[in-house]
Amino acid sequence: MVKSTAIERWEVAVIGAGLSGMYQLLKLRQLGFKVRVYEAGGDVGGTWYWNRYPGCRFDSESWSYVFSFSPEVLREWSWAEHFSGQPENLRYCEFLADKFDLRRDITFGARARSASWDDGAGEWELIFEDGRRARSRFLVTAIGPLSAPTMPNIAGIGDFKGEAYHTGLWPHHPVSFEGKRVAVIGTGASGVQLITEVAKTVGHMTVFQRTPNWCTPLRNSRISPQEMESIRNRYDDIFRRCRETWGCFIHTADHRNAMDLSPEEREAAFEKLYNEPGFSFWQGNFRDALIDKAANDEMTKFVIKKIRARVKDQRIADKLIPTNHGYGTRRVPLESGYYEVYNQPNVKLVDLRETPIERVTEKGLKTSDADYEFDMIVYATGFDAITGAFDRIDIRGKGDQKLKDKWADGPHTYLGLNIAGFPNLLTLVGPHNAATFCNIPRCIEQNVEFVSEMLVHMREKGLKRLEATHEAEDEWTAHVYDTGNKLLAMQVDSWITGVNKNVGRQKRTFMAYAGGAPKYRQKCEEVVAHGYEGFTLR
Ligand code: N01
Known about the structure:
By secondary structure, the protein is an alpha/beta fold.
C-alpha cells in the first residue's frame, strides 16, 4: 500500500531500530532533539529480530554484550546463560524498548529506498518502499554491518518446490526438521550454529560446504541467580576490562609472543585457552598469533589435532580442516558440538570444491556428480557485509553523487562515521569504523555518544552542517589500509575483506578498522578535543 506523500520533518532521522538505532534514539530524545527512527522490520532488535534460525546465539559473553549506559537496566535485567540465545536476546531489545518507551518514536515496516541530500535546503530526503517521505537536517544510518542477506548465485533457485529459508531472514513461524531431508548450504558462523541445532531432530541432513572454517568451542553454561548477582556487582570492572581490549571482548591477549616459548609451554597455553569459554582461544591468544605466520601456524596445528580427535572418519576430518587460511584469519564460528555432528549416520558432508553445485532443481540440488532430493533447503550463505546495507539504499550526496559509486573500489570514510561529499550523514558502526571487529554494543555506545555530542556541539554553536574534509578522509582511509595490512586476516577472502562472489565482489578491500577499539576511541577523543578536527562545521 502506498502511504500518503505528506512529508514528515525531523531534526534527525535514523534508519534502523537495532541496538544502535535504539540507543541513538534514546540519547537524542534525552538531549531534546526531534528525532524519528525508520525500521524495515515489524519491531525493534535488528540482528536479533531477523536472525531467528535455530541455534542462533551470542558468542560474546551476554554480560559483556549488555548496554552499560543505564544502571537501572543493569539492575533489572538478568541473563540466564553466559552466551544467550536469540529469543532471549530479542527479549532484551524489547525490554529496552518498553523501558524507555522507544516505539512511540519509531515507524516500523518502513524500508528506505533512497536518501538524497538537498544542498539548497541543507536537508536529507528519505523515500521509503511504500512511498512515505521524510526530511531531516541530519541522517543517521544504524543499519548494521551484517544486515543485507545474500542468496547464492546458483541457477534455478526459484525452481525448488520444498521449504526454503535464509538464516538471516528466518520466518516467525516454527520450522520443524523432524523426519525431513534437509540441505544446508554454507558453513560460516550462522551455518555452524544452525547445523548443530538441526542435527538434534533432523531426519537426514546434507551439508554443502565450499570453504571450511576453523571453529572452536563456545562452552556455554547457565547463570544461576547467585552468579548473576555477582556479575551485577562486577559490571564496572567488566566494562573497564572490555574498554582496554582490542575488540572490547573480555579476553585480554597474552602479552607474550608464541615463538618465544618452548613447544611444551605453547601447547599448555593453547590447551588452557581451548578449554575456556567464548573467544578465549582467538582473542586471548599470544599477541603475535594473528600477525605472525609462524605463530599462527602453531595455533592452527593445535586446532587441527582437536578436530581430528573429535571427528571419527578422518576422510571427513580432512574436508572439515581449512587449507587456505590459518586459524583466526576469518571470523571464527564458536560451536557446541559441531564437529561431532559429522559422526552422526544421518549427516552427510558434501565438499563443493570437489563436486560444485550446478543448479537448484524442483526437488533439490544437482551437483557435478549427483542429484539430491530434499524437503527443505537452508541457505546459510551470509551477507553482503558492511557496505551491502548502504548499497541497497540509493544514497546520493552533493552534486547527486551516488555513495555506491564513490565506494565502488571500497569504502572511503572519515572515522567510519562520515563521508566527504555527504554532509550531515552519520554512519553508526559503518565501514572503516572499529565496530566491525568489536563486541558491538561496546562500540555502539562509543559511536552513539560521539554523534550525540557532536550534534549538541553544533546546536550550541548554531551550526547546521557538518562534513568531513577530503584530506581527513584520505588520511583516515590510508590509516585503515596501513593498520589492516598488518593482519593476516587481510590476506584471506572473507566478508571482512569484502569478498562476496554472490554479489560479484571478487577483489579484497579494507572494510573495517583493524587498529582496535581503544586506538579508535582515542582518535575520536582527539578529534573532539581539537574542535572536530577533520570536519568542516558551518
Ligand atoms: O555468513 P558467512 P554467516 N555456494 O559469510 C557459503 C556474524 N554472526 O551468516 O566461505 C556455496 O560467514 C560461504 O562459503 P565461502 C559473524 O560475524 C554472528 O555464517 O564463501 N556456498 C560460507 O561458508 C559472522 O562471521 C553470530 O566459500 C556459499 C557461508 O556460505 C557473520 O555474521 C552468528 C555460497 C557464509 O558464511 C556472517 O556469518 C552468526 C555459494 N554460492 C553470524 N555463497 C554470533 O554468534 C556463500 N556460501 C553472534
